[in-house]
């Protein structure tokens, strides 16, 4: 980056609520159906049709507000946001303007300087628009209105994020909260979570906020991060050159990793919001709020703190483990039958996470259902007893037990028992020493680290079966005999 600048970021996130049907009609809110098959007069915006608020959608929105620590509005009211676009046959989107479902709340994130509360401005309910399809034909654009009327919650932060890393962290934590609260599946591939970023920069903290640039078309958290980084650099360079910044909307091009001007940015008053006459405002009962609050599960932040307090885990480990409820349950079940919490955490962070990353389809299908806690604990027991080297346990046995096989059986069938017999170890040592005269010379001239290299060579030769704890001394002894 050229000059040092102060970055200010606000995020607007559209989250698809977990309802089988749309927000104002009973059409299926389904992904991947035949185009224009999930439609009716209401979501097509045909004259004379009347919207009816889906109560399930409403209670999911309320849950989201409460899970995020916001305050629900007393009066629930919907408004029309007027604009023209071919994917919006009604000419307006039903949204909420002056009485959003919730105000305030926050998402806590970890930053290098400590915990930060990302303050939320509001959460409102609205309907999604349809979708334009441009790649079916070279000369025509097609419209699919299946998505029109899909229930969304729009969650708007205050402009309080200072970097692309904070934005990424915020989205990750927001997703975890919404998923845990059962508000949304947050499946990015199905467009359940879409984000717009408002980015501005200024030179000094005393300066007023710079002109706000809104970036759209951000389809992944990675894209959000990259787009913010690109935009900060672009704006800083423009500022350096003395160019006048304009308020505008830009589109992110993920292939070219660049933003492009889309239009000069409109303000809220351009939309001529007015009350939706077909949906009567109503009061939200306190009892309904309390009932929703009581039904919330323990949220990720609290779960993390529980893990830290209960098992003395580091914040980092606790966060990784509680990010997935199944992993957290697995961890707790293992700890019940094996008391070394640290070792269990290491296996989960290392082998279990690697398995999940490398076999994502399989993991989606089976999760940890085949890896019973007993199997992992038995495997750790074999390492503790010296029957297995850690390396063989990780590389050769774990991939089998994760699919439900017993570790003892795998060790037996594959002949993986650790070799601790001095005679056998010395056999390998002699061979390795003979093959590495240069390293032996190094040792003779006082380079102690040469021994570590030879330990590695013996481990390799023995295919990981040699007992590494015994090798150092044996190798030194042999080298001194030369
Ligand atoms: Zn419909
Ligand atoms: Mn919106």
Describe this structure in words.
With 482 residues, the chain is α+β, with helices and mostly antiparallel strands. It has 17 helices and 17 strands. The protein has helices at 41-44, 55-67, 164-180, 221-240, 286-294, 300-311, 315-322, 325-337, 341-358, 360-366, 373-384, 390-401, 407-414, 422-435, 437-444, 450-461, 468-481; strands spanning 6-16, 71-72, 75-76, 79-82, 92-95, 102-103, 106-111, 114-127, 131-133, 142-144, 151-157, 193-202, 213-218, 248-253, 258-264, 274-275, 282-283. The strands form 4 sheets. Strands 1, 2, 6, 7, 8, 11, 12, 13, 14 and 15 form a 10-stranded mixed β-sheet that branches. Strands 5-4-16 form a 3-stranded antiparallel β-sheet, with no helix packed on it. It has a two-stranded antiparallel ribbon with strand order 3-17. Helix 8 packs antiparallel against helix 9 and helix 8 (325-337) crosses helix 11 (373-384). The radius of gyration is 29 Å and the shape is elongated. The relative contact order is 0.09. The mean pLDDT is 92. Zinc ion binds at residues 22, 25, 27, 39-40, 42-43, 149.
Give a quick set of tags describing it.
single chain; 482 residues; alpha+beta; 10-stranded mixed sheet; 3-stranded antiparallel sheet; 42% helix; elongated; binds zinc ion
- Count of individual helical segments: 17
Mean pLDDT: 92
In what range is the share of β-strand residues?
15-25%
Question: What's the overall geometry?
Answer: elongated
Give the tally of β-strands.
17
From the alpha-carbon coordinates, what is the Rg to the nearest angstrom? 29 Å
Largest sheet: 10 strands, mixed
Quickly give the structural class: alpha+beta
Kindly, what is the distance between the CA atoms of the first and last residues, rounded to a whole number of angstroms?
58 Å
- The level of helicity is 40-55%
Oligomer: single chain
Q: What is bound: which ligands?
A: zinc ion, manganese (II) ion
Low-confidence stretches: none
């Amino acid at each position: 980056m050229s000059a040092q600048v102060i970055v200010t970021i606000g995020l607007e996130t559209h989250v698809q609520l977990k309802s089988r049907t749309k927000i104002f009609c009973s059409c299926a809110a389904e992904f991947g159906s035949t185009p224009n098959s999930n439609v009716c007069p209401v979501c097509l915006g045909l004259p004379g049709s009347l919207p009816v608020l889906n109560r399930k959608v409403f209670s999911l929105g309320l849950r989201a507000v409460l899970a995020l620590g916001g305050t629900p509005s007393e009066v629930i009211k919907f408004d029309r946001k007027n604009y023209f676009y071919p994917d919006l046959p009604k000419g307006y989107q039903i949204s909420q303007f002056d009485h959003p479902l919730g105000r305030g709340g926050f998402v806590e994130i970890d930053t290098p300087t400590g915990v930060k509360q990302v303050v939320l401005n509001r959460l409102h309910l609205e309907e999604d628009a349809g979708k334009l399809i441009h790649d079916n034909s070279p000369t025509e654009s097609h419209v699919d209105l299946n998505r029109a009327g899909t229930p969304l919650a729009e969650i708007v932060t205050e402009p309080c994020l200072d970097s692309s890393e904070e934005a990424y962290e915020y989205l990750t934590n927001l997703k975890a909260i919404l998923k845990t609260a059962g508000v949304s599946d947050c499946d990015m591939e199905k467009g359940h979570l879409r984000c717009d970023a408002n980015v501005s920069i200024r030179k000094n903290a005393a300066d007023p906020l710079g002109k706000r640039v809104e970036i759209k078309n951000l389809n992944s958290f990675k894209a959000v991060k990259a787009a913010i980084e690109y935009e900060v650099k672009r704006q800083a360079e423009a500022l350096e050159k003395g160019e006048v910044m304009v308020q505008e909307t830009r589109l992110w091009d993920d292939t070219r990793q660049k933003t492009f001007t889309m239009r000069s940015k409109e303000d809220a008053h351009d939309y001529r919001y007015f009350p939706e006459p077909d949906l009567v405002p109503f009061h939200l009962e306190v009892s309904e709020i309390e009932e929703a609050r009581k039904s919330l599960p323990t949220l990720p932040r609290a779960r993390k703190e529980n893990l830290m307090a209960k098992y003395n885990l580091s914040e980092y480990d606790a966060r990784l483990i509680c990010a997935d409820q199944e992993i957290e349950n697995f961890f707790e079940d293992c700890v019940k039958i094996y008391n070394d919490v640290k070792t269990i955490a290491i296996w989960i962070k290392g082998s279990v996470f690697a398995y999940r990353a490398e076999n994502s389809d399989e993991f989606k299908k089976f999760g940890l259902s085949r890896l019973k806690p007993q199997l992992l604990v038995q495997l750790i027991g074999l390492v503790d007893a010296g029957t297995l080297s850690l390396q063989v346990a990780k590389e050769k046995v774990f991939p089998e037990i994760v699919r439900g096989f017993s570790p003892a059986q795998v060790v037996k069938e594959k002949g993986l028992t650790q070799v601790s017999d001095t005679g056998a170890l010395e056999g390998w040592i002699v061979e390795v020493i003979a093959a590495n005269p240069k390293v032996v010379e190094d040792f003779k001239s006082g380079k102690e680290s040469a021994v570590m290299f030879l330990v590695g060579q013996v481990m390799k030769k023995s295919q990981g079966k040699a007992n590494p704890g015994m090798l150092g001394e044996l190798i030194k002894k042999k080298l001194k005999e030369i």
